[in-house]
Amino acid sequence: MAGLTAGKILRFDEVRGYGFIAPEVGDEDVFMHANDLVDEKYLYQEGSEVEFFMEMGEKGPKASHIRLVHQSTSHQLPRGGLAARTVSAPSAPDTERPAPATDDFTRDLTEALLDSVGSLTGDQIKQVRACVVDLARARGWVTS
């Protein structure tokens, strides 16, 4: 195996399981495959900085042991899901607003998920949305 190399993901198709990395050094794109990812594949997005070991595959340079260098925590659930952290109710605003209806909250949440992490699958969106809506109901943040 060659030494550790850094680069940015040019594109990665989570469904097909492959993509390409632009290495910091060199001008040839490096092939990446989902089997070589260290983190969950949905975290690998276009523009993400990664470290990897460069190998020569049958068709050219290939990355192995691909690890994200920096993960934005704003779009991630904590390890272990929502139960892994304590969520406190927001402080009361100066003017009390009624809690939104669950349908409105669900629609807004779906749009937020699509806007923030475009590579989520429909099933992933449904799972996250159901978990967040249950939490919102339990906290009284939405009305039925």
Automatic annotation (TrEMBL):
Residues 70-103 are annotated as: Disordered. SMART domains: CSP. It comes from the Bacteria. The keyword DNA-binding applies. Keywords: DNA-binding. The keyword NADP does not apply. Residues 4-68 form the CSD domain. One of its GO terms (molecular function) is DNA binding. This is DNA-binding protein.
